[in-house]
Amino acid sequence: GTPDGLTSIDLTLKNTEITGNNANYSVSYHLTQADADANVNPLPIPYTNITNCQIVFVRVQDINTGCYNTTTLELCVEQAPIANTPTPLMYCDPDSDGFGVFDLTSKDIEITGGDPSLSVSYHETMADADNDVNPLTSPYNNIVEDMQTVYVRVESSTIATDCATIVELILIVNPTPQLGPEPTALEICDDLSADGFGQFDLTSKEPEILQNLADPTQYIVSYYETMGNADLGVNAIANPMNYTNTTAFNQIIWIRVEDIDPATGCYKLTSLELIVNALPVLIQPTPLELCDDNNPGDEMESFTLEDATDEILNGQTGISLSYYETQADAD
């Protein structure tokens, strides 16, 4: 762990080699030859070396006769490769079921710091990483819902021993906003200029867009003129409450619904159709005229206003007409 050349060592791992696996021999380790000869101050097990490489003295004694001999053991600590603990690897889950697909190798450079002499493998358990077995392939489907830890084994091609550093990589599956069907078209009537352009309040569609979300306040809604911009989250429409369409009569805009937590970066796109409905083309009718017959001199007669309908519509269908005494009432 700490690159100081010192570490805790289980010296008894050498007992069998030293004794030739003779059960009648006892083994103790000492700091000096004098201590080994006197059989005093045996080193604790495990023992942390005080220099690198360090010579310790081994006393091997026949438990039946008491006769002993000594040898030496050199303790050398190899530095395991330096590896960085990576930031969590996140996946935005389209169906929010807690499972996703992860490109594990995308973390290689972050873990190794770009050192080309280091090799990286990923494992589902610490034991697999320790034993260098069952490496995971990438892309990898997580097997633990929502969050899973995988273990990364980092080895160096320049170190002659089997030293490896193991770090953890957290896999996080973030849900994406589960939107309903595309919102219904947003329609306005063309103004008197009849040019197919008008002003839309795009935000008026947000209740419809967010209706399937448990807490709509956890999401940010933004609007874009192209799908590419919406996907990248750039060049959003600056004033969606007062937007003038750029394509006459009919236009598609794109809506990005994004988790309010910027750490997840999860979002969904949907589209909204803008429709500018043309005004009916009306003909100014000729006046309706009647003779003052019912009560001559009062200039009051009963008019059938619908008599002007055909002239006003000039053959157009699908239009209803109603009549008012004032412009204000008609408006």
Shape: rod-shaped
- Give the topology string: H per helix, E per strand: EHEHEEEEEHEHEEEEEHEHEEEHH
Number of strands: 17
Task: Estimate the strand proportion.
Answer: 25-35%
Rg of Cα set: 42 Å
Count of helical segments?
Answer: 8
Short description:
With 331 residues, this protein is α+β, with helices and mostly antiparallel strands. It has helices at residues 15-19, 33-38, 108-112, 126-131, 206-209, 227-232, 309-313, 327-330, and strands spanning 8-9, 25-30, 47-48, 54-62, 68-75, 89-93, 101-102, 118-123, 140-141, 147-156, 164-175, 186-189, 199-200, 219-224, 243-244, 250-259, 267-277.
Give a written overview of the molecule.
It is a single chain. This protein is of the alpha+beta class. Helix content is 12%, strand content 30%. The model has no long low-confidence stretch (mean pLDDT 93).
How would you summarize the topology of this molecule?
Layout: E1 8-9, H1 15-19, E2 25-30, H2 33-38, E3 47-48, E4 54-62, E5 68-75, E6 89-93, E7 101-102, H3 108-112, E8 118-123, H4 126-131, E9 140-141, E10 147-156, E11 164-175, E12 186-189, E13 199-200, H5 206-209, E14 219-224, H6 227-232, E15 243-244, E16 250-259, E17 267-277, H7 309-313, H8 327-330
Parallel strand pairs: 6-11, 12-17
Antiparallel strand pairs: 1-3, 2-4, 4-5, 7-9, 8-10, 10-11, 13-15, 14-16, 16-17
